[in-house]
Amino acid sequence: MAIEVKVPVLGESVSEASVGAWLKQPGEAVAVDEAIVTLETDKVAVDVPSPVAGILSAHLVAVGDTVNVGAVIATVEEGAAAAPAAAPAATPAPAPAPAAAAETPSETTLSPSVRRAVLEAGLDPSTIKGTGKDGRLTKEDVVSAAQAKKAEAPAAAVSAPASAPVSGTSGERREERVKMTRLRQTIAKRLKSAQNDAALLTTFNDVDMTAVIAARTAYKDMFEKKHGIKLGFMSFFAKAACLALKDIPAVNARIEGDEIIYHDYVDLSVAVSAPNGLVVPVVRNIDTMSFAEVELAIAGFGKKAKDGSLTMADMSGGTFTISNGGVFGSLMSTPIINPPQSAVLGLHRIEDRPVARNGQVVIRPMMYLALSYDHRLIDGREAVTALKIIKDAIEDPMRLLIDL
Length: 404
Prior knowledge:
The protein folds into two domains: 2-80 and 104-152, CATH 2.40.50.100; 182-402, Chloramphenicol acetyltransferase-like domain (Chloramphenicol Acetyltransferase, 2-Layer Sandwich). Helix content is 32%, strand content 25%. It is built from ten helices and 18 strands. It has helices spanning 97-103, 112-121, 139-159, 182-197, 210-227, 234-247, 291-307, 312-315, 380-395, 398-402; strands spanning 2-6, 16-22, 29-30, 35-40, 45-49, 54-59, 66-68, 72-78, 200-208, 254-256, 259-261, 268-274, 277-279, 282-283, 320-324, 343-347, 351-357, 360-374. Strand 17 and strand 18 form a beta hairpin. The model is unreliable at 85-104 (pLDDT under 50).
């Protein structure tokens, strides 16, 4: 009996998705609840499981197609068994071919993160041996293959005989056209919408990280032993931001029509890098959390972002955002707000710089801070004051303990 596989409910206000990759091909056996296709929504990738055990009989949509919630995208023959392999005597010459084919993934069986890694590395996925389930490629397989390719290149250059270059040529020039993922399209639309709708402005300051670095150095081992998580800088900035948002409520508010909505809580969106682009999962009620709870929540979202398991619920809401470009080496930036929020804090790299202290020039670990905000709602005085509160709390972490 053929059972229909339908697009599941994807989340609040999400009515459609794009087919990212088929994880199972027609004729392959599937177990109940085994993922057979990945759908890409505006925010996350969602695996659709088989409702029954049997044989996948047909794909009804292609990779890249847009499908609505409830649409039938495949059929599974319930209870059917996979067709037995052909007798070796019938095809003696190409006998090894089926095994090789099983180990060689096709373009359509790659997950979104693996497909992107393959494109970025410029590799042929059919030449890479997969170590994942059923021989599928993993991102680690692609990274290893790319590293091996780089290691082979210098050796090939040394062993290759010298040859005169063709006059007037400088190597092959190629272009590749790749369709934007739904997530990347949504990011583009939202960022452009923020520029069009909000009156964006950015205020800057710098912060001396000496006290936070000293505190982290003194307590990081005890912290990790007790809580099972490393003490990072994000928890300090998250708690400092909560102080600022409570003192300057407009920075934690949003505009809705002709009304301003204020929040007496802080749901912090933390920008993290995922295989398909930047995502902003939300740590809810972060103003009530301890340092350890903040670190555990952020680490958990970071892991989910990397393995593609973030859900729509993880991404919805948020009253304020922190984006840390410093992990990539950024010295300074003007982050764009995450609508409908009205402000975003940008963190940057820490570097030793000469500064004046008590009439003397000393070297201190300094970081530039940037607060971008919607000037329709937040006045310059409020934005500058909020950023100064964050700066003061980081330079004197005792303020975080006594709520000052």
